[in-house]
Amino acid sequence: MKKIAIIGLGYVGLPLAVEFGKYRPVLGFDINQQRITELQSGQDHTLECSPAQLQEATHLTYSNQLDDLRACQIYIVTVPTPVDQANRPDMTPLVKASETVGKVLKAGDIVIYESTVYPGATEEVCVPMLEKLSGLKFNQDFYCGYSPERINPGDKVNTLTTIKKITSGSTPQIADEVDALYQQIIKAGTWKASSLKVAEAAKVIENSQRDLNIAFVNELSVIFERIGIDTLEVLEAAGSKWNFLPFRPGMVGGHCIGVDPYYLTHKAEELGYHPQVILAGRRINDDMARYAASSVVKRMLQNGIDVARSTVGVMGITFKENCPDIRNSKVADLVKELQQWGVNVVVADPWAEAGEVSHEYGIQLGTIDAQNQVDALVIAVGHHEYREMTAAQLRALCKSEKPVLADIKSLYNRHEAASAGFTVFRF
Hints:
This protein has about 425 residues and is of the alpha/beta class. About 40% of the residues lie in helices and about 10% in strands. It has 16 helices and 13 strands. It has helices at about 15-20, 35-40, 50-55, 90-105, 120-135, 170-185, 195-225, 230-240, 260-270, 275-285, 290-300, 330-340, 355-360, 385, 390-395, 415-420; strands at about 5, 25-30, 60-65, 75, 110-115, 145, 165, 190, 310-315, 345-350, 375-380, 405, 425. Helix 4 packs parallel to helix 5 (about 120-135), helix 7 (about 195-225) packs across helix 9 (about 260-270) and helix 7 packs across helix 10. The longest helix is centred in the middle third of the chain and has 32 residues, at about 195-225. The termini are far apart.
């Protein structure tokens, strides 16, 4: 049985390594020694895998040593593919991972990529690097596959094994082998794509489609706010029709939806086509943090609050609820927008790791309670701790006579919040 190496042990790689590690020899590889030490101790700070799940992977070992990769025959790359400050694809992690694999690649080996990329990236970016470092010939000495990740961080229902997996290979025979490999662990089954490019394209449009649908309801929320009607009430009414899609407005962050469309538009522009609809959706969604901040400040001014001497409490900074993942969190953009108005911002989050937030965004997590009251509250993430709070409990966190409540995730009954003394804003 061929030994698998999982390159990158984050939100995508670790669950994959654990699942394969229940049935066959697996090496979990990560360049971060701290991560390796953590996993060897049976802990996972991302909370994607419990200590019990880690123990079930009896055939899984961990390492950050290059030489340990030489014993493997299948390499699955699961490193992140972010964008830079100009929203251009940053392929650096993928290139470095390919360099690492290329140094240990042997005749007959298979390299499978799970990182989200634009159609053609595996063959145009990764394969040349593998050939250069190994001295081997693609589809003659070694082969590639592409099977895009569909991990939903924090979701304990739709997990790796319960989500259908797209597979593909660089030759028909390798496509069959890659598909059979994943069938070993994916209970929901697989979908074998006809080529690497088709599989790459399928992944990148999944999140582009969601991005556009969210952009649509975000734009509606801006329009409805000017009309003076509540967006959620409109969406619930429209949702009474069986085929109305249940998308909600919000700030679109994270490692996928706010990033993947830029990979597709990058490739399109390389080919001389300038996307319009996709980029329009991105512009709308990227502007929602600024819109939220200005809406909060406007209401504070209307309520007679001295904005320059005020404190706004922002509850939640992870990119989604009940999850410690802070990658590409648009809450950080919201905080910066508020600070540009001269506001003192206190950010609290029971799920986020303070050191990681400080390192990534330069934001120090604080406390919002009856002893540390604020003039306005922004509920930015729908953690269950916040969902369980009543309007009265939220009001006790505020010192202003007329505090503002920005219920970004529409967690609360707006009429109860208003009765508690809040001026309510929500998308």
